[in-house]
Amino acid sequence: MSTAYSALADLLGPRFTQSQSDRDLHGRSEGHFPLMPPDAVVYPETTEEVASIVRICAEAGLPVIGWGTGTSLEGHSIAPRGGVTVDFTRMDKVLEVLPEDMVAVVQPGVTREALNTELRATGLFFPVDPGANASLGGMASTRASGTTAVRYGTMRGNVLGLEVVLADGRVIRTGTRAPKSSTGYDLTALFVGSEGTLGLITEVTLKLHGQPEAVSAAVCAFSDMEGAVGAVIATIQSGIPMARIEFVDAAAAAAFNAQAQAGWADAPHLMVEFHGSEAGVAEQAERFGEIARDFGAEDFRWASLAEDRNRLWAMRHNSYRAMLAAYPDTAPITTDICVPISRLAEAVEATAADIADSGIPGPIVGHVGDGNFHALLLPKAGDAVEWEKAQKLAARMAERALKLGGTVSGEHGIGLGKVKYMEAEHGHGWQVMAAVKAALDPENIMNPGKLLPGN
Amino acid sequence: MSTAYSALADLLGPRFTQSQSDRDLHGRSEGHFPLMPPDAVVYPETTEEVASIVRICAEAGLPVIGWGTGTSLEGHSIAPRGGVTVDFTRMDKVLEVLPEDMVAVVQPGVTREALNTELRATGLFFPVDPGANASLGGMASTRASGTTAVRYGTMRGNVLGLEVVLADGRVIRTGTRAPKSSTGYDLTALFVGSEGTLGLITEVTLKLHGQPEAVSAAVCAFSDMEGAVGAVIATIQSGIPMARIEFVDAAAAAAFNAQAQAGWADAPHLMVEFHGSEAGVAEQAERFGEIARDFGAEDFRWASLAEDRNRLWAMRHNSYRAMLAAYPDTAPITTDICVPISRLAEAVEATAADIADSGIPGPIVGHVGDGNFHALLLPKAGDAVEWEKAQKLAARMAERALKLGGTVSGEHGIGLGKVKYMEAEHGHGWQVMAAVKAALDPENIMNPGKLLPGN
């Protein structure tokens, strides 16, 4: 092992470190997991360096964990078995922008905001928006989505190709720059969402979209949750091409008020955005307004200026912190179920009732246009009884999602936190995943302990 | 082996056959391959029967080949090593339509036209349209696309989940009915496009789309190929949401005239379709018309009535037969390259010049909004010199596609015919595919000889 560390130090010089602070930094996550530091952290600058790092680790049998911005929520990037964390911060170049093909090629450490800043003058943008300013390599690895997936899809549909360093150090390219292909197994889709357990993504080819000519956003309040959720379902079923449609329950609205002086009623809200031509946006907004009013919406606030919209979405993106601030001294447990839109009302209402019964705070927000929502369960810090109760609430949410034809994770992924649900969701399917894992990483060095039971 | 056949006969009664006519029928394809019949054909009616069939074949080491409608073009469903062909004709039920979720669940033998007939009253439709009235199981297996992919995507984006019988007879379900999920490897995407080499698809959950309020189609002629292709590129880059945009060269137009009394000029044409609201369609059509006229389009013919549009697209769908009829006594070789839209003009023009130089007929049609086009190479039947020349033309097209950042197959797949290009397109990637294949089908009984070199 010390031979491996010497080899890494020789390869990378000061970009190899075993300092306690660096190890601790890469042992923490935004989730509720205890500190699990790696034994070393490396900062490669090229694909060749990543391949050499993986070869050195493979020889020594050391775990290899990828790190983007550390904003994932299920402990994807921490190191339960030690090993070497590969931090992609220094691989942060936009390699190519091809406006005619609406394609960008980026290194994995480029964040979505950095890419969109670089794209500003092209008339194009990259829409997938998980809230955090995550790295695009990390977003591909976790199959991220977020507020705009209802219109533009998730990382599944917006990654055209990848460069990947395999567990033995070989480098492959998946996909092409053509819009479609049918030449064999879809390796791009296999690696998107594989959470670093099959290889490390060293380059991402992304699909770009045209910046909409016009954008308009709005917030409206509802007297009850049923009204808000009913309006979402009716809106989606009406075919209005919503760019965003976000649900915020009364507790979350109160947290926004406290944190961002939102001045909202303490009531369920919908936050919506429309993209299109001037006329198209106006038509969409009018149709949405009619539906929402039918379900009791009031107190409409429109935001057409970019700065007003930015303030609005910043509030939504900061909701996790706002809710933590509203409930200090709690130990947060994130949840992330996703159900067919026809079962959304049932899923949200049963979840809210279950949370109310428990006496544990659990504000709910969600990308409800996709049937996806999050309750942030907030048991008191250090209270084992509440912690246990909250874990049971989360487990019941997962079971409910599966019973309704949905999934235990719409967008956060499996990481460490949801391995326990893999068999319930996939049946024998997880064994197929395990067979693929064993075929591509027989020594189990790529992000061990994550995604698969027994991994 | 005879034990296996007895077991299959016991299981299926008259739905097991070794008749010469049935074997020959399943040994033929629409491609240029010689007769390669299986040793037996079975007609299961349930997933359980399919699982039993696979278990029996696995025990005897017999090849298992899936069969939908036999309309694939690269010999996917013929039997180079004999074995048992599983014909899904009797698994042709639409199991569920969930209009609120815009989802349908079908058995693999349901054809796209049968599904759309069943959906007519729901206001929904399934858009993927490869021309042939293919089975949805076959379309999923080959990752099919066709004329509408430019707007609605390919099978990659329109399959939500699958039921699959694995090589050892286990049955798995992939995906859920929720619009998105991030729970582990994307097995749905792994099986879509796997051409029956990893398992047999026994159920498909499909994404449906709203029938457009208004539809309008048009054809226009160009004085030269450069104008037609230039108009396509400008149209796509302008962001007009084309539902279809098809290129037809002068030779193909002449074949349409001969076959369908199209009355077109013997000149390159574009065939287009617009979907949307009445106002939206009118606006799209006007914007397209301006662009096309800038590139020299003339002789616009509009088709707003459903029957006129149907006649138009029937002509496009029958183009393969029309071209064969126009060039009798030829041995057709289909091609299917796809390139980034910025390289489309270069790809089409170099291909056309190469074909003209060869003296071999090669009419070109294409789903050019995706950068995808087909030259149908037509060497004289029985002329070994012309056949060799045409094979070289096809190989140069494939090389050109790769050089331009594209793919050797946009939608037809690999089957038997394109195995030779897998290494050139995927580098080490095909070894990753081979490792996945070996993990899921270690005895190589699932459609052997297809998709992978050495398989």
Shape by Cα distribution of chain A: globular
- CATH architecture call of the largest domain in chain A: 2-Layer Sandwich
Largest sheet of chain A: 7 strands, antiparallel
**The CATH topology of the largest domain in chain A:** Uridine Diphospho-n-acetylenolpyruvylglucosamine Reductase, domain 3
Mean pLDDT of chain A: 96
Distance between the termini of chain A: 21 Å
State the secondary-structure class of chain A.
alpha+beta
Task: Please tally the helical runs of chain A, counting DSSP H or I stretches of 4 or more residues.
Answer: 17
* Helical content class of chain A: 25-40%
Give the strand line-up of the largest sheet of chain A: 15-12-14-13-17-18-16
- Please, what is the oligomeric state? homodimer
Low-confidence stretches of chain A: none
Rg of chain A: 22 Å
CATH classification class of the largest domain in chain A: Alpha Beta
Number of domains of chain A: 5
The number of strands of chain A is 18
Strand content of chain A: 15-25%
